Amino acid sequence: MHAAVSPGSWPALVLNADFRPLSYYPLSIWSWQDTIKAVFLDRVNTVALYDKAVRSPSAEFRLPSVVSLKTFVRPSRHPAFTRFNVFLRDRFSCQYCGTKEELTFDHLIPRSHGGQTTWENVVTACSTCNLQKGGQLPAQVQMWPYQLPFQPSVNDLHKNGRLFPPNYLHQSWLDYLYWDAELEA
Question: Which residues face 55 on adjacent strands?
Answer without folding.
Answer: 60
